[in-house]
Amino acid sequence: MNADEFRKYGKEMVDYIADYYENIRDRDVMHRVRPGYLTSLMREEAPETPESWEDIFKDVEDIVMPGVTHWHSPRFHGYFAAGSSYPSILGDMLGDAIGCIGFSWAASPACTEIEMVTTDWLGKMLNLPEEFLHQRDGPGGGVIQSTASETVFLCLLAARTKYVKRLKEQDPNLRNVDVISKLIGYASDQANSSVHRSGLLGEVKMKKLATDGNYSLRGETLRAAIREDKSQGLLPFFVCASLGTTGTCAFDNLEEIGPICQEEGIWLHIDAAYAGSAFVCPEFRSYMKGVEYAETFSMNPHKWLLCNFDLSVMWIKDRKLLVDAFNVDPVYLKHQDQDKVPDYRHWQIPLGRRFRSLKLWFVLRSYGVSGIQQYVREHVRLAKELESMVTQDDRFEIVADVIMGLVCFRLKGSNRLTELLHDEVLTDGRIYIIPAIARDIYFLRVAVCAQATTSDDIRVTFNVFLECTERALGKFGDNNGVDYTPGINIDGPLPKYVTPRTAEVDVNHNSDKV
Known about the structure:
514 residues, alpha/beta, Aspartate Aminotransferase, domain 2, seven-stranded mixed sheet, four-stranded antiparallel sheet, 14 helices
C-alpha cells in the first residue's frame, strides 16, 4: 500500500468507523456465534500472494463483525464502560503513525513531556495532593500504564522491595527469601481479583478483609488483622484500598485506613480504576477523603474518561521507590539528559511504551474539564433514573447504594430467581449485563457504559427486564412461596430497536475461505 492508497483507504476506514458509531443501535449487542466460528472461513495458512484491500476490507463486516460484542452500544451494560471518543481514536492513529518506543526522554522527548503535562492536568482535575504532580519539582509524578491491574502488581513489587531493603539495612544477614516469605498484604473482600493475582505473582500473602454493610473496608478491621498477623510473626507491608469496587462500586474508608498505614509503615495503594474519573466532579470528592495517606493512586481513563483502551494513569509521591526497585540501566539506554527528566522505562514493568499520552492530550483539550464533568454527571443521572424504575416494582430490590453509573439489583427471594432472570436477558439479546455475587447474594449489575446512552435506552433496558422477569417467574413455578405483584411498565413511547435474532449467525454464507 503506497501513500495515495493509504489516503484513499484511510478515509474509507474513518467513514466506516464513524458509521459504526452513529448506527450502532442497529446492531445486536451480543454476538451469536459459537467457539471456532472462524475456522470454516479462514485458510489454514497465510495467503501466498497479496490480496487487494477491497477484499480484505469487505471481510471486516462479513467475518469480523458477527463475532463482536458491541461494548459501545447504548444497550451494553456489562462490566464498566470501555472508554472511546473520536479525539481518542485520532490520538491512537497519530501515536501509531509516529511509532516511537518511548522508553526514555531521548528516544522521543515529546512522548515523555506530553505524558508529564497530561498526567499533571488530570491530577489537578481530580484534586490530588501536589506531592503526586511533576511540576512541583518534587520527587513525585504521574505515569501512564496499560491497566490498573498492572499498576497494582507494580506497586506491590515496589512496596516489597522497599520493605525488604529497610529490614536488610537493620540486619544485613537477612536473606530476601526470609523476609518475603513473611510479608502479608491486605485488600477488602470486594477488591478486584487482580489484587490477589498480584500477590500470587509477587509471591506474597494477600488477605481478604471483611467489609461493612456498605461493602466498605473499615479501619478497625484492618487494625485487627495487622495485630493478629504480627502476633504470628508476619510482616504487614501493603494495603490496596478500592474506590469503586467492580461488584458494587463500593468505597473503602480511606480516612480510617490511611492513618493506620502511616502508623505501621505500610504502603497504601488506592485503586480507583472506574470511580476515579468521577472525581473530576467536586460533588464526588468526599469519597476520596484520606487520599493524602496514599503512596500511589491509580485510575483508568480508558473506562470512564472517553479514552480508548489501553490507558491507565498512576501517580506516586516518590518515584525513586519505583526507579530503585526496577532500575537496570545498560549503557545503550543512557543519555546526557537522563537526570533532568523522567525516563519512564524505570516506572513500569515493560521496557518499551507507546505514545499513549497523545490520546489523553486530545481528549482533555477537546472536551475540557466542563465537558468531561457533564459526561460523567449524565451517566450518573441515567443510573439514578434506572434505580427509580427498579424501586417502583415491588419484585425487585436494590443491593448496593447507587452512587455513580452502576445499578445493582435482584429479584426478591431465592438466588435462583435472579439467575433465571439473567438467563432470560441473555437469551433475549437486546441488552447485555453481567451478574455478581456478594455475601452469597446473586444480583445483576447494570452499568451505564456508552457515550450515546439516553433516557430512552434506559427505558428500553428496564422494559427488557420486565418482560424477562415474567418469563423467569413462570419458569420458577410457584415462586418459592413469594407473593409477587404485577410488574410496572414505564410510560411513554419506546425507541425502535432491531428485533433480536433467535438463531445463531449463519457463518457459512460465503463458501470462499478468507
